[in-house]
Amino acid sequence: MMVGVSVGGRLDKGAVVRFVKGHGTGNDFVILPDPDGVLALTPETVAALCDRRFGIGADGVLRVVRTAKHPHAVDLAGEAEWFMDYWNADGSIAEMCGNGVRVFARFLAAEALVEGATFPIATRAGVVQATVTPDAVSVVLPLPRVGAGSTATIGGLTFTGTSVDVGNPHLVCALPSGMSLGDLDLTSAPAYDPAAFPTGVNVEFVVPGATEAATFGHIAVDRRPGPDHGHIAVDSPPADGPDRGHIAVDSPPADGPDRGHIAVDSPPTDGPARGHIAMDALPADRREQGHIAVDSPPPTQPDRGHIAVDRRGGEFGHIAVDKRPVPVGVDAHVAMRVYERGSGETLSCGSGAIAVAAVALRDAGKQTGVVAVDLPGGRLTVAFDGETCVFTGPAVLVATGETLPTT
Ligand SMILES: N[C@@H](CCC[C@H](N)C(=O)O)C(=O)O
């Protein structure tokens, strides 16, 4: 890819920069190792790196720099060797990134830049303690500060919420009963009160007391404004055989030419653990036919299946179906979606999950306890002991590479 990187304060068109790609529950990052702080990142460069079409693609950038070498962190040099220089996908800087700091910790451990499994990391919101295990990374953070009420408006609907400071600003909005997370159109930013959030805000939408897929899974098809919404029809038992169902989606309406369908075979045709969805993207008499194969359960996550069709940026929504089991031994369980300041809708937001968990625990009348938070990208847990919170979830490195010099 062709991404210019400023080196030593000047744009060096010959710069080749090593990067690592990682994610925490689908909140993905380009990690830039820069121990001596010589990469002079700009908002434009970060936005180019994060561009999912013209760049590497990510929700944000994590620059790995020695605390002593970065002006925003030098005061913390006695407490932590490494500073997470976090940038949102639009090139703005944020104080905290909960998933980012877990992925950052995974990177430090994988590159043997730290000793032991527990170590401090400096952030713009202070120093946090990370503990790395093969399956998860936990981070100990200060208790979030639950504040005043405010509102967010999206799609003509106004939601009442609670502001929470996790180092960065959040507004946690509960959905009214009868509304599900899949009903939300998060393709554009919610409106908020700029007097309450002068530097912007991450907005979380929450279904409290979530149970298995019933309250988290959602199917949203065709969010185009206007009268031409499609429909989903499920025959059970199906019309053409004992083991076959189908979902028919008309878009635009049935009397128009562009008719597609989704056919679901159950049991699947090619193996005991595999199903498929065949989609005609164009009318049946044309050639462009696609399909999505779904392993259930997926090989890497035995208790989870999902179908995700994401055409954000266009006119269609997405389908996501979670089959995560109800967590045991927790004091509260919530499901959420988030619109992040500077990054748009993401599959997961760690600081957002902490904010949501703090409100859920408060609403449960407790000051200590464990909250499980389900997001489109997976499950995170937050444990509160009255003095700190411990934020835990998977953190994975998936690729490494080099940017190419610009021409
Ligand atoms: N967009 C946030 C910063 C990133 C949050 C992150 N995804 C997380 O996991 O906490 C902001 O601008 O505050």
Automatic annotation (TrEMBL):
Keywords: Amino-acid biosynthesis, Cytoplasm, Isomerase, Lysine biosynthesis. It is found in: Cytoplasm. InterPro entries: DAP_epimerase_AS, DAP_epimerase_DapF. One of its GO terms (biological process) is lysine biosynthetic process via diaminopimelate. The active site is at C97 (proton donor), C97, C349 (proton acceptor). Its main location: cytoplasm. One of its GO terms (molecular function) is diaminopimelate epimerase activity. It catalyses: (2S,6S)-2,6-diaminopimelate = meso-2,6-diaminopimelate. Pathway: Amino-acid biosynthesis; L-lysine biosynthesis via DAP pathway; DL-2,6-diaminopimelate from LL-2,6-diaminopimelate: step 1/1. It comes from the Bacteria. The record marks H170, E340 as: Could be important to modulate the pK values of the two catalytic cysteine residues. Substrate binds at N27, N88, G98, N99, N168, E340, R341, G350, S351. Gene3D superfamilies: Diaminopimelate Epimerase, Chain A, domain 1. Its EC number is 5.1.1.7. One of its GO terms (cellular component) is cytosol. It is an enzyme of class 5 (isomerase). SUPFAM superfamilies: Diaminopimelate epimerase-like (SSF54506). Belongs to the diaminopimelate epimerase family. Homodimer. Catalyzes the stereoinversion of LL-2,6-diaminopimelate (L,L-DAP) to meso-diaminopimelate (meso-DAP), a precursor of L-lysine and an essential component of the bacterial peptidoglycan. This is Diaminopimelate epimerase.
